[in-house]
Write a structure and sequence with these properties.
152 residues; mainly alpha; de novo design (two linked rop proteins); 5 helices; 64% helix
């Protein structure tokens, strides 16, 4: 795996571009009192989007890849939430806010499409270790409670 492989993955490229937009355009507009609060939260969430997609891509097995895409999508939603808050606190101009939200929405659709592709193709299904995934037994859990009707 290499950066060259990632560069061919449209989902990762768009996630990276979105993170760069947030870093270059939104974060610098936050006031200095947000340096250790909203600034850091937005920074971590935005950089986590392409990082999770890259990590999943490097896992080969499709279920692992899907799991990391879910994490990346969650980080995207977190970033969008931070952008909403920054806009409502009047830290971001309306035009920038609307453009970043639109980019985020387009990225959500792209990630969802990539997840669908991975599920459909099951890429890496026969990789070593693939059939040895962890799962919980499907048995129901029972909670033992004292018998309240007994007259001891």
């Amino acid at each position: 795996m290499s950066v060259q492989g990632l560069e061919q993955l449209k989902t990762w490229k768009q996630a990276k571009e979105f993170a760069l937009s947030v870093f270059r355009q939104a974060i610098p507009l936050l006031p200095t009192e947000e340096k250790w609060n909203l600034n850091q939260q937005m920074r971590r969430a935005a950089q986590s989007i392409p990082a999770n997609i890259a990590e999943g891509y490097g896992r080969y097995y499709y279920q692992e890849n899907i799991r990391f895409c879910y994490l990346g999508r969650g980080s995207l939603e977190e970033t969008l939430s931070h952008l909403v808050l920054a806009y409502e606190l009047d830290y971001l101009p309306k035009e920038l806010y609307e453009r970043l939200i639109a980019e985020g929405d387009a990225l959500t659709r792209l990630i969802n499409g990539y997840i669908s592709y991975l599920k459909r193709t099951r890429s890496g299904e026969n990789e070593p270790g693939a059939p040895h995934r962890l799962s919980e037994p499907s048995e129901q859990y029972f909670l033992e409670t004292p018998d309240l009707d007994s007259s001891d």
